Amino acid sequence: MNDTAVEAGLDKQNGVTLGRILGRGTVGQAEEGSDGVMRATIRIPEDELVYEPGIVIMPHAGTLELTFVNDDKNTHCAVLPSNGDYKFIWLVNSSKGTATLDLDGPGYYWYGSRSGNDEGRGLTAAIVVGGDAPPEARIDRPPQPRP
Amino acid sequence: MATDYVDAGQAVDNSSLSGIVGSAPPVTDGLTYERILNARSEPQNWLTYYGAYDGQRYSPLDQINKENIKQLTPAWAFQCGSVGLHSGKSTYSFEASPLVVDGIMYVSGWDGWVWALDARTGSMLWQYRTASAFDVSLCCGNVNRGVALAEGRVFVTTLASHIIALDAETGKKIWDTTYGDVRAGESGTMAPLIVKDMVIAGSSGGEFGNRGHLEAFNRETGERVWRTYMVPKPGEPGSETWPDDGEAWQRGGGNCWVTPTYDPELNLIYQGTGNPCPDFDGAVREGDNLHTDSGVAVDADTGEIKSHFQYTPHDVWDYDSTMEHILFDLDGQKLAAHFDKNGFLYILDRTTMDPVRVAPFVDRIDWGEVDEKGNVTPKVFPDKEGDPVHFWPGPAGAKEWTHACYSPQTELLYAPVQDVGATATRRRREFKESIPYWGAGVAVDLDDMAGSISAFDPRTGQERWRWSNDIPMCSSVLATGGGLVFAGEPTGEFNALDAESGDLLWQFQCGSGHHSSPCSFSIDGRQYIAAPTGWGAWTEGFLPGMLGAGQGSALFAFALPE
Fold first, then answer.
1. Which of B129, B177, B231, B245 to probe by mutation at the A interface, max A CB count within 10 Å?
2. Is 0.90 exceeded by the ipTM?
């Protein structure tokens, strides 16, 4: 794959830039359990200052349970969106914890680590919520052309 | 070697890591519809968005008056700021009108925030935040104009077009109803309105070519009671004002993004409607385009449109008429006053929506002429593809959404006036759902502008006095029984003017511009004036000359020293 950001050295710490350009990384799918809760695991690998996967996709709005694993040799955290209040989880070196989020959709949300300038160095990631507005909320008109 | 992980536990609510109390006293349990009907009889409270259903934004309180105003001082300030990456980071602002019941203030902010505050001290009692997607469609800022309160519940709309009910004691969500489609560019920004056992909300998203609607929900359950579209389908009344060939009405606009007023005796909700779409390319929607740019009287029980008046037929200047219809009785007539974006003040008979009086309220108007019966003759408008056309007022209007007021003490109307033009160049574009659908390139003037707080006599439509400013005034005005008119400036000053003369009597620099609605209340006999401040929103539309001004997020409460 032709990836200009990678070729330009932007997809790493202290390459061309100081931190990794946001929006890079892998995409993961949250898996829906029989209880209706969607789940995914997010890992912070050593010295990369990223959440992996950088994008998690929920197939629809609802409850998302994220398991965070900090495999880095530095402390980070995550400030996450959720209906009601932001959620905060502290992730010291080699720790593991969970965050349960309630999110509407469709749309996508950013979350990040507020430790130091983790957010700017690359520890900012996205949660994507797929789906549509319920039929009764939609406008009474024929289907419209989209981009 | 396997890692021995430390248990990081479960993520916690961010507010648990603050000084928040977590609950409010049950002051709204007895807040019935009947109490809201008589809101002005309890001047110590501000029970509904405009202070009362009539939209007058008048407080009878007079402890703060012309004789002692110079002693007015900040009693407290509340701030929030912003967290992480969120939508409209450059344009979030405080646009709300706070509500107060028995010493507890309820107010909404940007990015899904709702707060309950101790109105005596400003301390936060609880907060609720709707998680708001980064990519939500916003035309005009990450904003919310306020909440509604009734019988133990707080109601608020969200940027993702939900209306939610919260427990007024704990801030916990009770019900959540989606009432618009984000994929169509719809959103929710207005303060809802309690009417009987219903809560009323309208759709935002007027720049995205959707079909604006107003609806009512059961307060207990969140179930829809009625929905009324402002642009009719073929065959419905008013459809003859849209082309027969069938697509324009589907994207016709007419959004209802400002809180209506309500006459309980007539059982009518007075809703202003927004611009038609595409805003500036009228050739794809020939006809008057009902019910866009209109004042619409809607039956509160059924949502049926009973009567209307269209301020700017076939609008090609983006002259939304969503702004308030101030209800007042004068000389035996039941009237409604509406300061329209198009630069004219209309006094309507609110039983029929027929104009009684029409008069200009801003110095420069060249888009068209409006006679005393409200008939429009367009003069200057974008017409030819690629041809720049300058006109006054610009698309933010001679008065933006921020509210005028009426004082029954002086029998005068007071309006925040914007005198700034714009240049629109028609650029026809194809409609694509969720993409802004203007049909023009538009630039609002960066200079050669002015503003004022102006007082008007509704009996004549004439200006009685004017307090002039170098730049447009774009914050709501509040009149009080102390003979004062309060209004905030884009440069941060919060002013008190003499309601009779317009003289500036007091001023306080709040640190960031005003684009919201101040209110007044009292606790144990001490009167407060509350002013949310913080510059942002669609500044490029109403005042790009101040686009670089600093953002803020402080709610000030002023009082006389104890």
1. B129
2. yes
